[in-house]
Amino acid sequence: MHFTYICNVKKYINNHLTHLQLDLNNFSLTNSNDTNGFFVLNLDSLFFSFFLCSLFLFSFFLISKNFNYKFPGKIQSLVEIIIIFVNNNVKKIYSKKDNLISSVALVVFVWTFLMNFMDVIPVYFIPFIFKNFFNIEYIRCVPSSDINITLSIASNVFLLILFYSIKYKGLKNFVLDFFLYPFSSPVFFIFNFFLEIISLISKIVSLSLRLFGNIYAGEIIFILITGIVPWWLQCFLIVPWAIFHLLVIFLQAFIFMTLTIVYLSMSVKKSH
Q: How far is residue 86's CA from residue 60's CA, in Å, rounded to a whole number?
C-alpha cells in the first residue's frame, strides 16, 4: 500500500515536470527529459511563451488603436497604470528619456509577469485539456520555470547591453575598455579583461537563474502539496501559498525589469 502510494506520487510529479519536446534530429515528439540535447526543443515552453507574448502585444495594440482620452475604460486604465509604473521606474534609474529602454522594460515586465502567472493555474487544468483534446499526455505551462526561456530573455538583454555600449562608445573604445577598465596600468590588462568578461556573463546568470529558481521552486511546492498532502488538507496549504506566490510572481517580474533597466542604463552612463 505504502509502496503503491509512493509510486503514484512519483508518477504525478513526473507528469508535471516532463516537457513536451521535439527532437530535431528526426522531427518526432518525445516526452523524455533524458534527451536534453542541443537539437531538442521544449515545445510547451516555446508555445506558451510565444502565446503570452502575442496576447500581450495584440492587446496593447488594440487598446492603443481605440484609445479614449475623455472616457477611458477599465482595461485602458489598467494599461495606463502599467505604462506609468514602468516609465517612473525608468526615470528613477536612468534620468534621460530613452524610448528603447522604456519599451524593453515594459515588454520584460508584462511578459515575465504573464509567464509567472501561469503558475497560479491549477496544475491539472491545462494538462487535462491537452490530454483529452489533443492526446498529449505531458505538458508544462509555466515558461519561466524552464531555464531555456529565462536564459533566452536574459541573452537578449545582454545583446542590448552590447548594442548600447558600442553605440555610445564606438567599437574601438568598447574593445579597449576590456583592457583599460577599471585599472589603466598595462600590468592589469589581462586582469581587466577577465574581470570585464566575468562582469558581463554575471548579468546573464543573475537575470536568468533568479527568475528560474524562484518560479521553479514555487511550482515544485504546488506539486508537492497536491501530490503528497491528503486532499482534505490541501486547501489549508494551497490557498495561503497561492496568495504568497502572487506576491512572488509580481516581485520577480519587477526585479527582472529593474535589473534590465539598471544594466542598460549602466552601459549608457558608462559610455559618457
A: 15
Residue 2's pLDDT is 45
Take residue 82 and report the three cell numbers written for it: 502599467
Residue 249's nearest CA partner among 143, 152, 127, 177 is 143
Please check whether residue 148 is in contact with residue 42, taking contact to mean a CB–CB distance below 8 angstroms: yes
pLDDT band at 45 (very low <50, low <70, confident <90, very high): very high
User: Which residue has cell 542598460?
Assistant: 264
| Cell output for 269 | 552612463
For the stretch 63-90, pLDDT in tens is 888 888 777 888 888 999 999 999 999 9
Beta-ladder partners of 40: 23
Residue 209: helix, strand or coil by DSSP? helix
Whole-number Å distance between alpha carbons of 145 and 216: 5
Residue 271 has pLDDT above 70, yes or no: no
C-beta atoms surrounding 2 within 10 Å: 6
pLDDT of 272 over the 70 cut: no
Residue type, 8: N
111: its cell numbers? 511578459
CA 134 to chain centre: 27
Give the residue carrying C-alpha cell 574593445. Answer: 175
CA distances, 20 to each of 49, 55, 108, 235 (Å):
14, 22, 25, 29
Sheet holding 28-30, edge to edge: 28-30, 21-23, 40-42
Vertex 144 angle, CA 249 and 116, to 5°: 25
Measured CA to CA, the distance from residue 265 to residue 196 in angstroms comes to: 17
Q: Which sequence positions are flagged as catalytic?
A: 206, 210, 214
Q: CA 61, 62, 64: angle at the middle one, nearest 5?
A: 65
Task: Judge whether residue 112 has pLDDT over 60.
Answer: yes
